[in-house]
């Protein structure tokens, strides 16, 4: 299945939560021992906590937290060698 909508809308997160919960229920019917890995969709815990922070389903989120650091260095013509 491919997403055909903007992945950063309330509707898209609601769809993923519904999908994740259905998957969790199906997996838990088979086993309660295995941790379930979910992707954070590059959105971080601040997005998913509202739905899964108090879950007892033994969920592990694959998170992708990046720090982007940029700097602009300027060099004056007089400092060039």
Helices and strands, in N-to-C order? HEHE
Whole-number mean pLDDT: 78
Rg, alpha carbons: 20 Å
Number of helices: 2
- Count of folded domains: 1
Largest sheet: 2 strands, parallel
Cα-to-Cα separation, first versus last residue: 57 Å
Shape: globular
Summarize the structure.
The chain is an alpha+beta fold and about 80 residues long. The protein is about 35% helix and about 10% strand. It has one domain (about 10-75).
Topology:
Blueprint (H helix, E strand, L loop, with lengths): L9 H21 L5 E4 L5 H8 L6 E4 L19
Parallel strand pairs: 1-2
Structure description:
The protein is of the alpha+beta class and 81 residues long. It has one domain (10-73). 36% of the residues lie in helices and 10% in strands. Strands 1-2 form a two-stranded parallel ribbon. The protein is globular. The chain starts with 9 loop residues before the first helix and ends in a 19-residue tail after the last strand. The mean pLDDT is 78.
Provide the descriptors you would attach to this structure in a database record.
81 residues, alpha+beta, two-stranded parallel ribbon, 2 strands, 36% helix, 10% strand
């Amino acid at each position: 299945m491919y997403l055909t909508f903007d992945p950063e809308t309330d509707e898209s997160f609601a769809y993923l939560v519904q999908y994740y919960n259905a998957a969790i229920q199906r997996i838990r019917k088979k086993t309660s021992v295995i941790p379930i890995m979910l992707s954070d969709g590059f959105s971080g815990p601040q997005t998913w906590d509202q739905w899964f922070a108090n879950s007892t389903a033994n969920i592990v989120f694959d998170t992708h937290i990046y720090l982007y650091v940029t700097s602009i260095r300027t060099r004056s013509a007089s400092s060039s060698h």
